[in-house]
Amino acid sequence: MAISQNLDTTDDVVAYEADNTLRELVGPDTPLAEIFTPRLIQECQKKIDSARDAFFDIAGYDLARLEAFVKVQMALPEATDAWFEEVASLAGNIKGHAELFNFGLVASITHHIVSICEPGTHASPVRLRLIADLVTMLRIAIRQKISDERGALGRELGASLRRY
Amino acid sequence: MPSANATNKLEKIQVLVLDGSAHAADLLRDVFLKLGFMNIQVVSDGYEGAQAMKKKPVHLVITDWELRVRKKPKISDTSPPSDKDILPLSGTEFVRRLRQSPHSPNPFVPVVMVVNHDAEENAALARDAGVNEIITKPLQADELCARLMQLIDDRRHFITAENYKGPCRRRAANPLGEGVVERRQRQVRLVRRKEFRSS
């Protein structure tokens, strides 16, 4: 590649040569079509589909942990920041998993749980009540395996919560 | 399954997967293993990601748009100053700091970001943070492989400017190559990577 010479050293935009590391590691002459074959891509897709099919079962286990955690706290007068962080972490795990497959309603509910867990959104008792209600909705969505792939239900939920 | 020869081609590549959801990260790791990648490290937040990159070289980063945001840890007097520079992080913030921080372990490393399908503005933000390739959810094997192939043969220049550091955002095969002379007036110059390393 030609490199421009004798340029002003005060240049404020610099373009470096493209990083070639991945190509060097793969091998300069290796055709990528030999690595990423249609059959291999199909097998990977099967793995993704199988994970998608198992989503609601796995989410059920995560939900059980979340529900247990919330249930214990509801008997107490006020929740700590650490409690909210843990709830956000549990809900965030389900959220990321749901988003990977575009399960809109589960993603939306868990998104709102995570948002409510952020400090300063509401007083602690209000946040607790909201979280408990959202966890109930989450239970229904997961048990009934509502995929909501186009996200209509999730958006509706978001709009309702904003009004609230 | 890939042939033994083809698998060997990918096993040298060190992959770092960042995802706030353990299940999503596990699936990404499984898919990469299936593709023939052998060295895959999974972390849940940007801080761990930066630490992992400091410990050993990473050739490819796959990050989710949203990472687990960890609380800023207490930084003792003996901690290196760079620790202050990497917390807390979303996916885009991780990439931006990876590209721009003077403490970055590798500002040139190729980055693929996984973003939600319905958020076009996220894709634009990811691009402006310095991401090389974007994959939209739901995860699809053909799209993932297409992006990886594009990345391996990515010939785009790495641009450093006042407000941006990352791969050239123009998709042309060689957007600067033939126009360098004209672009001199706009203060653009090409340098070899080793020149950067030695500076």
Question: How would you sum up this structure, described in words?
Answer:
The complex is a heterodimer of chains A (164) and B (199). With 164 residues, chain A is an all-alpha fold. Chain A has a domain at 55-163: Up-down Bundle (Four Helix Bundle (Hemerythrin (Met), subunit A)). Chain A is built from 8 helices and 1 strand, in the order E-H-H-H-H-H-H-H-H. Chain A has helices at 21-26, 32-35, 38-53, 55-74, 81-100, 104-117, 124-143, 152-163; one strand spanning 13-16. In chain A, helix 4 (55-74) runs antiparallel to helix 5 (81-100), helix 4 runs antiparallel to helix 7 and helix 6 runs antiparallel to helix 7 (124-143). The N and C termini of chain A lie far apart (60 Å). The model of chain A is unreliable at 1-9 (pLDDT under 50). Chain B is an alpha/beta fold. Chain B has a single domain (4-156), classed as Rossmann fold (3-Layer(aba) Sandwich). Helix content of chain B is 37%, strand content 17%. Chain B has a 5-stranded parallel beta sheet, sandwiched between helices. Chain B has a two-stranded antiparallel ribbon with strand order 6-7. In chain B, strand 1 (14-18), helix 2 and strand 2 (39-43) form a beta-alpha-beta unit. In chain B, helix 3 (46-55) packs parallel to helix 4 (91-100) and helix 4 packs parallel to helix 5 (120-129). The N and C termini of chain B lie far apart (44 Å). Mean pLDDT of chain B is 78; it is low at 72-88 and 179-187. At the A-B interface, strand 1, helix 1, helix 2, helix 3 and helix 5 of A face helix 1, helix 2, helix 6, strand 6 and strand 8 of B. Strand 1 (13-16) of chain A pairs antiparallel with strand 6 of chain B.
